[in-house]
């Protein structure tokens, strides 16, 4: 069992120092582990070790953090990232991910898919699972008719639950894009690619938290400080 933030911080630091270079456009992920990566980039920008770097943030929270750290930002209409550094909720042996429990999966996937080399995933070793589905699969859904969308998701063999706001449990959680999130519990996810397609065929289901074929590499640290880098086969 991995405890504390040490492994997250170490994985993020290793990924930034291995992959991020001056002159790059880099997608900036959202969540606790991605925050360590953004902070490390900010330190290197402030020290002058990284020059002419721009970040494309995946959430309002990441935008605010980057602005605080003095990281120059760009939009996807201005530039495409070389890659995106982001965390994951679950990582399969095939480097397929579950993301979105932090509430930003649609924008995270848009930026990752727009990145020339996909995702550099940073995580602690507790995120390595086989098969996927140890926890719920987030699905970003339109707020209109959400009840019928949850019914359709249930027909795929899961137990969907509308995510409620963390600070006000009496109202639904709302993403930066103004959408709701359904957290879908499966016994296991044996075929992520097929499930991702099935989810997106449901009217009202905007995007699933299954990230298939988007991972370039994972940088994972354990509680002993060991960093394991796994690269997608070419």
Description:
It is a single chain. This protein is α/β, with parallel strands linked by helices and 234 residues long. It folds into 2 domains: 6-126 and 212-223, Rossmann fold (3-Layer(aba) Sandwich); 137-208, ACT domain (Alpha-Beta Plaits, 2-Layer Sandwich), CATH 3.30.70.260. It is built from 6 helices and 13 strands. It has helices spanning 6-19, 32-47, 60-69, 105-114, 146-154, 192-200, and strands at residues 25-28, 54-57, 83-86, 90-91, 97-98, 119-124, 137-141, 159-162, 180-185, 205-208, 210-211, 215-221, 227-231. It has a 6-stranded mixed sheet, with helices on both faces. Helix 1 (6-19) packs across helix 2 (32-47) and helix 2 (32-47) packs parallel to helix 3 (60-69). The model has no long low-confidence stretch (mean pLDDT 96).
Helix content: 25-40%
Give the total of beta strands.
13
Strand proportion, as a percent range, falls in: 15-25%
Could you give the order of the helices and strands? Answer: HEHEHEEEHEEHEEHEEEE
Tell me the span between the first and last alpha carbons.
Answer: 32 Å
Largest sheet: 6 strands, mixed
Rg, alpha carbons: 17 Å
Globally, the shape reads globular
Overall SS class: alpha/beta
